Input
Amino acid sequence: MRQKLGWLATVVVSVVLGAGAVVGIDSLRSDARAGPAVIERVSEPTNSGVADTGMADVADLYAKVRPSVVQVNSSGRSAGIGSGIVIDKDGHILTNNHVVADGDQLDVQFSDGSAASAKVVGTDPGNDLALLKVDVASNKLTPATLGDSDKVRVGDFVIAVGNPFGIEGSLTSGIVSGVGRTLSGGTGRPLRQLIQSDAAINPGNSGGALFNRRGEVIGVTSAIENPSGNRVFAGIGYAVPINSARRYLPELVAGKQIQHARMGVGLQNLTPAVAKGLNIGVEQGVLITQVDASSAAAKAGLRGGIGTRGQPVGDVVLSIDGKETKTYDQLADYIDSKSVGDKVSIKYFRDGKESTVEVTLDAWRSSASN
Output
């Protein structure tokens, strides 16, 4: 959830430190610790009945998808239980990075009760995703069908299958409550384009599947928003869209750790009221409030500032690669679509005139180095 900030506040988004301030977001591995309290808002779960699915029986849908969802057990420095999704007959299993990040030993338990050791093949901390590999006979593997998360609409019926609190193979249902959500991811880069759902998920659901009514995976369940500070579901859960995983699956299978592009700036939406208060000569765009000294933006000469305490006003980004930018989400989403090393053309406004500069995007680093 983003805090509602005044016009003098600095809203830091995905190109530097995260999109807005998000607190109390619990990761969903069974040993996750609750964060600080969230802004006091509670959304009640929606009780979506069978009629919402367009199917005769939700039980049939569950029976179809259940063998594709496994339990992931982690032991060693960080022990816990999560979930995973079988994606092919070669033994690759998709889960959340936070489920396996600190585990010395991993094993996977299948729906028939059998288990096998697993190893981490590739990781994408920026999307909180990891790919595991198990060495089992192909006939023990039932790959899930991956859907198209770009087609998800608010109001679509969904089911979540996972292992909340270690309770194996649990099913919950609900609807899509929102799309395109952004949360602080804990690795520097926020999680973006998340699917919000009111299907009940709890610690242990992490890495499990959010399915549509056709039994296609549209998301990987990852986090809950918890106003009370307790590690229980309060009506708002988030899933990493499956298209974020599909984009990088070839690299994950190849054993790579995914890096994501960034400019290295903090941003604030520029509105006519903000522009008037700061005496800026343009009324709409994205104000650069902060520039990381070692970032791509700094190397390109872009300037940040919010015009207080003697600070200069930062540059206002008007467009990127010829595409008009009116909000920080538009800019951040475009940067996310690029790769490290790509060059982008930034048109900006400074000191009464427009200029253009080329920025060579660098990579996100851990939150400790930002």
Notes: Residues 1-26, 32-55 have pLDDT under 50 and may be disordered. DSSP finds six helices and 22 strands in the chain. The chain has three domains: 25-53+147-238, 66-140, 263-369. Residues 263-369 form a domain with the Pdz3 Domain fold (CATH 2.30.42.10).
